[in-house]
Every structure is written in structure tokens, then in C-alpha cells.
Amino acid sequence: MVSAQSSDPSAPHAQARPNILYIMADDHALQAIGAYASTINTTPNIDRIATGGMRFTNCVCENSLCAPSRAAIMTGSYSCRNGVIDLSTRLDPAKLTFPTLLRQAGYQTGIVGKWHLHRDPSEFDFWDILPEQGVYHNPVFLTPGAKTKFPGYVTDIITDKCIEWLEHRDASKPFMLMCHHKAPHRPWEPDEKHAAMYEDADIPEPPTFNDDYVTRSDAARRQKMAIEDLTKTDVKQTPPPGLTPAEVKHWKYERFLKDYLRCIASVDDNVGRLLDYLDAHNLSDNTIVIYTSDQGFYLGEHGWFDKRWMYEQSLHMPLLVRYPGHIKPGAVCDRFVQNIDFAETFLDYAGVAPPPSMQGMSFRPLLEGDHADWPRDSIFYHYYEEGTEHHVAAHYGVRTDRYKIIRFYSEVHAWEFYDLQNDPHELHNVADDPAYADVFKSMTETLAHVKERAGDMTPETAEAPPPK
Ligand SMILES: [Ca+2]
């Protein structure tokens, strides 16, 4: 059990274990967070968590898609073990989740907002969730036995509901509250308050905006998630007449990104409301606050929107963690952590032993400043969902601090290999470059090892690696 200073002497038993406030956005890229040196927006409230705690620069998901990442977070296990490999698979209620264990250990548990695992989150004491993706304006919420429409904007309403739950919680118990925003998920509909932000701005294009995919496998050429593929629903208008294709692409990019950033501005305001609530109720010192997103997102990099790929922007998740007195303010950690680690980290702080079904590691030692002994030097990734709207071919791979190897094994059969030190933008696939033959072979061995360790039995259906 962790020791924590009581900030409320009238209820010392409630303070023995920290509260956990877990705030997760949907598709919020690191590139659009001030604390991650965003060049396109500011997020002063989200940044309060970073300045008061730790910013992780290498938190990565194991399957960059909403439902799979959420299932990995809840179960502490890879998609191959928790079963949620794609957007449509239900999380089997028999799979053990960390809120179940926290509840059994005496935590009061709640979840508000996007759930997306195709069953009721009945392991929580309290749940008030959006059906599937939910909508931005006048959203419907589901509670046990009821379906209710609320007037207003989804990000505000989710925060209102979280604050209301905190107000009426049983203060004799520690709490674990998951505040799951819909924003900034497609179709990026801002509220009135932020609708005019960036109106006169020209958001700069990222350096890989016009990636020609020339050294890549066919996977990049057959995808349907290019900026050009954004629909009228996405960008809310028809492009003005007379534009060249390049001008249409830039016009769509600006329309998409400005709405995306406006949605984030509301998330940031509402993160501020929750942090203010903790401050005003003397809860900040004994509450671990997390800000993350279920995965990253492309904001024009490689000419794309959406996620799915093992490339850097969708692989990485933002992760900011604050726990005053336990995490050094303004700390930065570059070690590999994954979404499968979240469950065991929370259990660790609650003094609960992790069950054998969990495959991650508590990163509490990292939070407490011990970075030297962290054993993980590579991460495993597997994206399964092919054939749906965005046509991203199934692939798995491994990333180390310097290299990334990707195996496309189904609709596309190919290897990709990137030297991230010399090619941080992942523009030069060197899978066929003889200069990399030895390290390529070594990385295929690492891949086989981490894949086996994850329990991933996906067969090697494709041909052998290319000759060197
Ligand atoms: Ca998502």
C-alpha cells in the first residue's frame, strides 16, 4: 500500500491510497498538446498536469484503434489475449478488468463518456456512457436501464457528470474515475464558444504532408485515409471552385485541422474545470491525475488523417501523470510504456497484486524517478482491422529506441524497416538496403521474440524476408 499525506484530516482512512482521475481523449495527437511542443495550438490546462508531474515521450499503444486500445487499457493485455482486435468486437465480460479489482479493493469507481466496448461497463459502481461513438451536440447517454438525451455540448456534459459524481461520491473511500471524452474524434464538431478560433490562421503543413510513399510497401498506396479522402461531413463545406488538386488538399487540411483543434480547446477548458475542482476540494495532493488519448492521430503527416498504422504519430499516445509529492514536477520520461501497463500501474498504487491475465508492467518506478532499471527496450504492435473504410492492411511489428520493423502479412505481404535515428520521419524504408542486412535480421528475431511473449499466434503467412 502506498503512503500518502492526508489532505483532509477528518477522513484519514480515505487518504491512505490515492484517488485516480483518469482523463482520456479520443484521437488526441501529441502534436496538438502544448506540453509536447505543439506548433499549432496551446493547451494550458492539459499542460498543468505536465508541469506538475511527468510527461512520457514514448508511451505507445499496441493496436492503434479506439476499441482495441480501450480493451488493452481495461484488461492490461494485448489484443490477441483480450480478444478486441477491431472496432466491432465486444469485450468479453469474462475478461478481468482493473476497475473490477479496484472496486473489490474498496475503491469507488465510475466511468463517464465514451466506452465503445459493446457491453455495459457493469464492473463500475457508476457508469454514464455514450452509446458507441456518441455525438457532439445534444448527446444521448446510457445509464443502467435508461437512455437520456442531454441538451448541450458533449465535452461540457461529460465534465459536468464527472463533477456531479465527485460531489456525491462516498468520501470515506478512495475513488477511481474515468473521464472519457468523445472529442476530438471525427467528425470534429466544435462548440459555439470555440467555433471562430483559428478563423484567420493558416495552419502550417507538416514536413511529410506530400509523402510520395516511393520506398514503401503497397500498403501506403492503397490506404483511404488521405487528406483528399476527407468527406463533406468532415470538412462541412464543398471546396471553392477553381482550385487545383494541391489547393483542394490544403483547403481540406485547414478545414479539418481547425475543427480538430477547436474540439481540443473545449477538452482543454474542461480539463481545467476538473483540476480546479480538485484544487477547490482539497483533493489535488492525494489524487493521481492522468491525461492520455486512446491513440495518436495523423494531422497531415504522410498526407493523412486517422490512425491505425505503426508509424510514429498513431503509435504514440500522449501520457501526462501528476501526483504531487510523489512525482517530480516537470519530469520527462523517454522509456517505453504501453497502454497495457496502465492497469497494473493503477493496481500497484492501490496495493492490489496484478492478476496473471495482465501482460504489462507497473510503471510506478518510472513515475518515482527510477528510470535506470526499467527492463523494456522494445515494444510489440499489431493492427488487425483491414478491409474497412480506411483500407489499412494488417501488420505487426516491433520498435526499439532506434529501429522499427513492420510486417504486412495479409492483404499486403511485405516488410518495412526504418532507422529512426537517421530517418525520424519514416520516409525511407530500408528493408531491402544491404547496408542494414544484419540489423534487419536481428530485428526479425526480436520481433519473433516479442510476438511470442505477447502470446500472438498469428501465422507467418507471407514469404520469407527479402534476400540481402
Ligand atoms: Ca480513438
Provide the descriptors you would attach to this structure in a database record.
single chain, 468 residues, alpha/beta, Alkaline Phosphatase, subunit A, Arylsulfatase, C-terminal domain, 9-stranded mixed beta sheet, 27% helix, disordered N terminus, binds calcium ion
Outline the fold blueprint:
Blueprint: E1 19-25, H1 44-52, E2 54-60, H2 66-75, H3 79-82, H4 98-104, E3 108-114, E4 126-130, E5 140-143, E6 146-149, H5 154-168, E7 175-180, H6 218-222, H7 232-235, H8 245-280, E8 287-293, H9 312-315, E9 316-322, E10 331-333, E11 337-338, H10 342-350, H11 364-367, E12 379-383, E13 395-399, E14 403-409, E15 413-419, H12 437-454
Parallel strand pairs: 1-7, 1-8, 2-10, 2-11, 3-4, 3-7
Antiparallel strand pairs: 2-9, 5-6, 8-9, 12-13, 13-14, 14-15
The structure holds calcium ion.
Calcium ion (CA) is lined by residues 26-27, 66, 185, 294-295.
Structural write-up:
This protein is α/β, with parallel strands linked by helices and 468 residues long. The protein has 2 domains: 16-190 and 255-376, Alkaline Phosphatase, subunit A (3-Layer(aba) Sandwich); 380-454, 2-Layer Sandwich (Arylsulfatase, C-terminal domain). 27% of the residues lie in helices and 18% in strands. It is built from 12 helices and 15 strands. The protein has helices spanning 44-52, 66-75, 79-82, 98-104, 154-168, 218-222, 232-235, 245-280, 312-315, 342-350, 364-367, 437-454; strands at 19-25, 54-60, 108-114, 126-130, 140-143, 146-149, 175-180, 287-293, 316-322, 331-333, 337-338, 379-383, 395-399, 403-409, 413-419. The strands form 3 sheets. Strands 1, 2, 3, 4, 7, 8, 9, 10 and 11 form a 9-stranded mixed beta sheet that branches. A 4-stranded antiparallel beta sheet has the order 12-13-14-15, with helices on one face. It has a two-stranded antiparallel ribbon with strand order 5-6. Helix 4 packs parallel to helix 10 (342-350) and helix 5 runs parallel beside helix 8. The longest helix is centred in the middle third of the chain and has 36 residues, at 245-280. The protein is globular. Residues 26-27, 66, 185, 294-295 line the site of calcium ion.
